[in-house]
Amino acid sequence: MATPQGAFVWYELMTSDPAAATAFYTQVVGWTAADSGMPGMQYTLISAGPAQVAGIMAIPEEARAMGAKPGWEGYIAVADVDAAAASITAAGGKMHRPPQDIPGIGRFAVVADPHGASFIVFRGASPDGPPSAAPNTPGHVGWHELHAGDGVAAFDFYSKQFGWEKHEGMDMGPMGIYQMFGVAGSAKDKSMGGMMTKMAETPRPHWLYYFNVDSIDAAVERVTGAGGKIVNGPMEVPGGAWIINGVDPQGAMFALVAPKR
Fold it and tell me: Which of 66, 128, 244, 260 is the most buried (most CB within 10 A)?
């Protein structure tokens, strides 16, 4: 099945200690890990059951020299990486790494929106994307959340770049509108994420990815037991799910979502 334009198709953790990060997430989320066998670099493939969902690698030296910190990045599917990167920069975004090929895998570019939240545009070598998982499937990403420099401007930017459509919007009072969104043509009850203007104490705009787990309380124990920190939650959100926001031992932010406590 062809990957819809604007869908998130892969996730990647760049970190200061890949081995330690792999041990943390396999314990917390229940993933399994295997070396990719890619020549010339250490790249760990992460799987949820039979499905590969993410990769873990060391922060590249050039990125580290520019001050890059551990963090998760999401890959967004596009029809033409070069055209997408050019459109993003023309709209006020930035190019952190110009388009290049991964032999046999696809083509990508590392970019950022006009307020600095980074992500990756990607076109796979095959038109078929990863198989979709049922909602709440453990180990898969269940939600994509943008803490934006300006929520209204951010939606305008992403909708023009990827065709994202507005779904429900929740008024959070002084915090503004939490705008849920989906790929073009998606049902209003099939949102893939939400975005809002970041809180003043949040140091910079960023994307936050929510990994599905079975039970939030059990997951909290795994996070703290493995050396991570809970910075928000557990908290119930509309629809009855429970979430936490956390920081792994290397300093990368992540989130977990579960259908129960």
Answer: 244
CATH superfamily of 8-124: 2,3-Dihydroxybiphenyl 1,2-Dioxygenase, domain 1 (3.10.180.10)
Question: 192 with 76: CB under 8 angstroms?
Answer: no
Residue owning tokens 């819809």: 4
What dotted CATH number matches 141-258? 3.10.180.10
Q: What DSSP letter does each residue of 9-61 carry, written as one string? A: EEEEEEES-HHHHHHHHHHHH--EEEE---TTS-EEEEEETTEEEEEEEEPPH
**Residue 242: what residue type?**
W
Q: Which residue carries 């600095």 as its tokens?
A: 116
CA–CA distance, 52 with 49 (Å, rounded to integer): 8
Per-residue confidence in pLDDT tens, the chain, 261 aa: 467 889 999 999 999 999 999 999 999 999 999 999 888 889 999 999 999 999 999 999 888 888 889 999 999 999 999 999 999 999 999 999 999 999 889 999 999 999 999 999 999 998 776 767 888 899 999 999 999 999 999 999 999 999 999 999 999 888 889 999 999 999 888 899 999 999 989 999 999 999 999 999 999 999 999 999 999 999 999 889 999 999 999 999 999 999 999
| Every domain of the chain and the residues it spans | 8-124, 141-258
Q: Which two tokens stand for residue 114?
A: 């006009």
Tokens (6 digits) for 248: 């792994």
Please work out, in degrees rounded to the nearest 5, the angle formed at the alpha carbon of residue 89 by the alpha carbons of 210 and 61: 65
* Fold match, 8-124 / 141-258: yes
